[in-house]
Write a structure and sequence with these properties.
mainly alpha; single chain; 143 residues; elongated; 3% strand; 5 helices; de novo design (two linked rop proteins)
Length: 143
C-alpha cells in the first residue's frame, strides 16, 4: 500500500512540476497567447506579473517548482518525513498565495487552484504514509 501512495505522489509531483514550469515560462517569456487569462478576475496575471509574482524577491513559480522537485525526489527515496514536511510547507505556501489572490487582489488563478488541489492531495497522502510508518507491523518486536 505504501508503494502505491509513493507512486501517486510521484505522479502528483510531476503534475506540479508541469504547472510550475508553465507559470514560470509565462512569467519569463510573456507569450502573446496566454490560455490562463480568461477574464479580468480569472487569470494568472497576479502570479505572472502582479503583486504575487515574487516572494522574498524569488519568482513565486520557481519556489513551487523547487518544492515539487524535492517532493518527487523524496517520493523516489521513499522518505515519508520529507514528503510530509515539504507538502506541509507547500500547502502553507499555497494557502498564503491563495489568500493574497482571492482576498487582497480579488483574482482567481486557475493554474494556482490546480496546484493547490495537487498539494492538498500530496499532503493527505503524506499524512497517510506517516501514519503507516508510525504503526508497528506484526514482524516488529514488542518493546
Amino acid at each position: 500500500m505504501k508503494s502505491k501512495y509513493f507512486d501517486w505522489i510521484k505522479i502528483l509531483a510531476g503534475i506540479g512540476i508541469f504547472l510550475a514550469l508553465f507559470l514560470l515560462w509565462e512569467q519569463l517569456f510573456r507569450p502573446s497567447f496566454q490560455p490562463c487569462n480568461i477574464s479580468a478576475t480569472v487569470n494568472c496575471d497576479a502570479v505572472i506579473s502582479g503583486e504575487v509574482s515574487k516572494t522574498l524577491g524569488i519568482p513565486t513559480p520557481l519556489i513551487g517548482l523547487i518544492g515539487y522537485i524535492v517532493i518527487l525526489f523524496a517520493a523516489f527515496r521513499k522518505n515519508t518525513k520529507l514528503v510530509l514536511g515539504m507538502a506541509a510547507f507547500g500547502l502553507t505556501f499555497c494557502l498564503y498565495i491563495a489568500f493574497r489572490e482571492l482576498v487582497q487582489l480579488r483574482v482567481v488563478c486557475p493554474v494556482c487552484i490546480l496546484c493547490q488541489i495537487d498539494m492538498i492531495t500530496v499532503f493527505v497522502l503524506g499524512i497517510l504514509l506517516n501514519r503507516m510508518a508510525a504503526k508497528p507491523t506484526s514482524s516488529d518486536p514488542i518493546a
